[in-house]
Amino acid sequence: MTSQYDADAIVVGSGFGGAVAAARLAQAGFSVIVLERGRRWGLGEFPRASKLDDGWLWELDRGLYDIRWLDKMASVQAAGWGGGSLVYANVFARPFEETLDHRWPDHLRRKELDPYYDLAAHMMGVAPVGDDPRTGRTPPRTQLLEQLLEHSDKAEATVRPNLAVTFGDPDTWRPNVHGAQRRGCAFVGECVIGCNHGAKNTLDHTYLTAAENAGARSVTDAQVQRIEPRDDGYTVFTSTPSDPDAPRREWSAARVVLAAGAVATNELLLRSRDIHGTLPRLSRKLGHGFSGNGDFLTLAELRGDREDMTTGPTITTNTVLDVPEGRRPVWYQVQDGAFPPPLNDLLDSLLPARKARDWWRRRVRGTNPRQTFAVLAMGKDSGKGKLRLDAGGDATLAWDNRWQAALYRSQVRVGPAVAKLLDARLYNPFTWSVLRRTITVHPLGGVRPGPDPATSVADRAGEVHGYPGLFVMDGSVLPAATGVNPSATILAATERAIETVIRRSGQPEWRAPEWGAVVPAPVPEDAAFTSQSKLRNATKGDGLVFAERMTTGRGKHPRVVLTLKAEIPGMDPFLADQAHTVPMRGSIDVEDIATRVPIAGTLSLFPRGRHEAMSYALDFHDDEGNAWQLTGTKAVRSRNPVDLLTGLTHLRTEITPLASETGESRRLVLTIGAADLFRLGTSISGKGFTLARRLRASARFASFFAASALRRRSPGPTGGPRTTTSPDKGPSARR
Predict the structure, then answer these.
(1) Which residue of 76, 316, 358, 631 could cross-link 142, Cys pair, CB 3.0 to 4.6 Å?
(2) pLDDT at 423 (0 to 100)
């Protein structure tokens, strides 16, 4: 460090980006000053009393939460040494590659960032929730959510995400990999109001400990007001929040890393460009592309006498949903969230506005706080918000909720479905129900990365165009919603960016010293995303079910009764399939062979390029456990209504043993009687999340069936062999 500067690098903010930058710069031998406006929160110091002057709000007494009303959206962030990690819900999740659109450059995609995710997972000490060490049981809330979809086609959608929490004995202190003392989680569900137990792996006990171990200097109670270029570096001016009358302080360094969070970083740069005029060359795209990460919150109260829903870490499960809305899919995640009783008590005394207070006491206060939990959703919003300065020089947001119509509509629909499955009452927070304002705890964007200052604000390493040595490394540089909790992506992106900066500075081979201990971390959310991606492709266009019953008729031998349920998962893949394959399962009763045994296989319904109208291939085991196969066809001789009805209700069948010693093949005709035909018609039902989608699927199937039946006719004597034969001679069924 030269004597003209206070340090080689100044890092503004100690959250997910700033903590990584400080640790790596210090480990690489740079002198580092970290400026943090908030205080250090010690064990047992986080607020719990139901009064505002207990340290809850930044605006009141430099408290824990800083709530910014950005016109039609509110942003909630933490203030303190460790930034947002002090109050986040610990989730370490990676976005699914398929959900990242064209706005995501290569250096922020999974292929590039996965090694850095692994490094960050090692630094943060992540693991999924296990059993409560004091009860030996999985938290009741976890059990409830895991059972919610276990018997549906979305069973694989719910996983236990990795959490930055120390699990194990809650009464024993032990050092983590950074030497910070931690003890096992006590499962009190208070992660989002600050962990007073010492189990949460917040940044002050992980990256920031590593930074201070390597010589970084922390300066709390220092709020950055402006930045000015100075010689070949920068001067940063700070005020003292605890003492408004204290003189302004100046700090200088060759490099400055801005990591104050998406709102504050954009605000600081906008002021420097538009008010102070100290950074006039900043891109005109500054503030563009702001995202709330699709955050949406609902509260659920379980009915009846249920177990305590507040135990465990704040979030223990993550359910990935891929829901069609209109003509495109909407990806988002739903997570359970403990609603801490201290927060419940605080809100009861916090709401001074009569409208909000009446809503709270009417809708929430009469509920059982131990049986109430949050349902948290986040998805892919438009990311088209624009941060700008109001007349007072504070950030405000140009944002239209209508841009998010598909996402919000789908998220709101989840409520009634969850309520029915859980036997719960759900209600939206008053900010949405009364004010129609969304709240984000994951503000992102505004400093889009790219090579061209005409379309972006910073380069791939976060260096601001036109200002060498000035970097942005926080959620501001993420170009769109991650669709998952974004903290892991901010960590990984900063790991990659700061490594690039250090290598550019004359250490081309530099690597973080922890790399040798890193092993690939499990990514449970990938399995959930993959399963739902496959399910979406299989169910595109929504599905349909119907049931049919066919028999040989009374008095016929051998007597056969075949009952089947058909399920078309999605009309789009069904119509695109040349064979129009329909999975079928049910039961079969064959005289002297099988007594109501399960049967399963496929129906090919009006296959293209083939003469038969329908072709069945089904397998079953007889009463002795021997394998049999049923094959058969339905054929239409002409468009004459009688021939058409006869062809579609008569299945010419062969039942064949798959082992010759089991018995002989049986050839027979199964028919659908008048009553069974009526039941078949009334059983046709569309599958979809809304009535409109179910009706549309049914209508598409009816149209396909009618058109195909009228076109289908077996060739006559001059057109080749018929696919039908008389019952006594058996069918020439295609196999």
Answers:
(1) 316
(2) 83
Which positions ≥6 away from 243 have C-beta within 8 Å?
none
637 token code pair: 């001789």
Half-sphere exposure of 650 (CA within 13 A, CB side): 19
Q: Which of 394, 14, 498 is nearest to 219 (CA)?
A: 14
- pLDDT value of residue 285: 97
Closest CA to 262 of 126, 66, 10, 32: 66
CB 457 within 8 A of CB 463: no
Residue 563 confidence class, pLDDT cut points 50, 70, 90: very high
Neighbouring C-beta atoms of residue 675, cutoff 10 Å: 9
Average pLDDT (695-720) is 78
Is residue 525 within 8 A of residue 531, CB to CB? The reply is no
Q: Are strands 470-472 and 7-12 parallel, antiparallel or unpaired?
A: unpaired
Task: Name the H helices within 125-243.
Answer: 140-148, 207-213
Q: Where residue 430 falls among pLDDT bands split at 50, 70, 90?
A: low
567 is written with which tokens?
Answer: 């399920």
Enter the tokens of residue 246: 């204290």
- Distance (Å, whole) CA 63 – CA 60: 7
Cα distances from 706 to residues 69, 189, 524, in angstroms, run 57, 57, 45
Torsion of CA 367, 373, 379, 381, to 10 degrees: 40
- Neighbouring C-beta atoms of residue 684, cutoff 10 Å: 16
**How many Å apart are CA 31 and CA 6, to the nearest integer?**
9
Among 379, 395, 365, 378, residue whose Cα is nearest residue 272:
395
Does an H or E element contain 358, and which? helix 354-363
Confidence of residue 154 (pLDDT cuts 50, 70, 90): confident
Separation of alpha carbons 714 and 733, rounded Å:
13
* Residues 18 and 208 sit within 8 Å (Cβ to Cβ): no
Q: What is the model's pTM?
A: 0.86
- Whether residue 8 contacts residue 197, with contact meaning beta carbons closer than 8 Å, is answered with no
- What torsion do the CA atoms of 276, 281, 283, 286 make, to the nearest 10 degrees? -10
φ, ψ of residue 106 in degrees (nearest 5): -55, -40
Residue 561 near residue 549, CB atoms below 8 Å: yes
In degrees rounded to 5, what are phi and psi of residue 424?
Answer: -135, 165
Q: For residue 733, what pLDDT is reported? A: 36
Residue 54: how many other CB atoms lie within 10 Å: 17
pLDDT (0 to 100) of residue 723 = 38
From residue 659, alpha-carbon distances to 228, 341, 628, 663 in Å are 87, 66, 8, 8
Measured distance between the N- and C-terminal CA atoms of the chain, rounded to whole angstroms: 81
pLDDT level of residue 382 (50, 70, 90 thresholds): confident
Sequence letter at residue 717: P
Whether the predicted pLDDT of 326 surpasses 70: no
Could you tell me which residues are beta bridge partners of residue 102?
none
Q: Cα separation of 564 and 631, whole Å?
A: 14
Grouping H, G, I as helix, E, B as strand and the rest as coil, residue 296 is strand
More confident residue, 122 or 643: 122
Distance, in Å, from the CA atom of 427 to the CA atom of 433, rounded to the nearest integer, reads 8
